[in-house]
Amino acid sequence: MIEVFIAGATGYMGSRLGARLMVRGHRVLGLVRAGSEAKLPVGCEAVVGNALDHATFARAVVGAKTFVQLVGVAHPSPAKGREFESIDRVSCEQSVLAAKAGGVEHFVYVSVAHPAPMMKDYIRVRSECEEKIVASGMRATILRPWYVLGPGHSWPYLLKPGYWVARQIPSMREGAIRLGLVTLEQMLGALVAAVETPPSEMVRVVEVPEIAGIARRS
Questions:
Q1: 13-34: pLDDT as tens digits
Q2: Which of 23, 7, 42, 11 is nearest to 192 (CA)?
Q3: Is the pLDDT at 129 greater than 50, yes or no?
Q4: Fold assignment, 3-147+182-217
């Protein structure tokens, strides 16, 4: 049994991850804003706090073996640069502070595939967050999906024929693979694997092909 603290536990990915981890016998604590406790999956222990201020939840992190950082702007777009700075960046900084102070052994972060020809502000902020995690000295797993397909996030299925064509062109193949689409199920599988199997090295980066591969092996 692993004690897991999830920041972003009521979100699109976090609520599903928390439920899956509990089914597998792990204890899950979820950071939640006051009044939103009912949005947590059944059995998840609520930690009421502000993801942008580590002082509001740092004490609850003590004792957790793994910290999963999933807080971020919903439905990222190039127009949300300021929100990436004020939410994605700040929440990651505060989570790192809380996890470091709480003695967390393993920090799990969902970043984004890069480089890419678009979403430059999003990629820049997430890359800088990766740097802060590495600098913290904690053992870490960093996952880099590009776009996660799932309920309410299905329009990129229309791009799949274009991805197939790009993979056939040598000059475009690497980018098409690195920026490939992954499913919500694949992401959840990769996150569970990250929680249950911390890296032997200090920092492990999981790119799109490995995210998909973990799902196929499980």
A1: 999 999 999 999 999 999 999 9
A2: 23
A3: yes
A4: Rossmann fold (3.40.50)
75-84: per-residue pLDDT in tens?
A: 888 899 999 9
Task: Please state the pTM of the whole predicted model.
Answer: 0.89
**pLDDT for residue 177:** 52
Q: Per the structure block, which two tokens stand in for 192?
A: 């569970």
Phi, then psi, of 165 in degrees rounded to 5: -60, -45
d(CA 202, CA 30): 25
Cis, peptide link before residue 115, omega less than 30° from 0: yes
Residue ranges with strand state E in the chain = 3-7, 27-32, 45-48, 66-69, 106-110, 139-144, 147-149, 181-183, 203-207
- Domain boundaries in the chain? 3-147+182-217
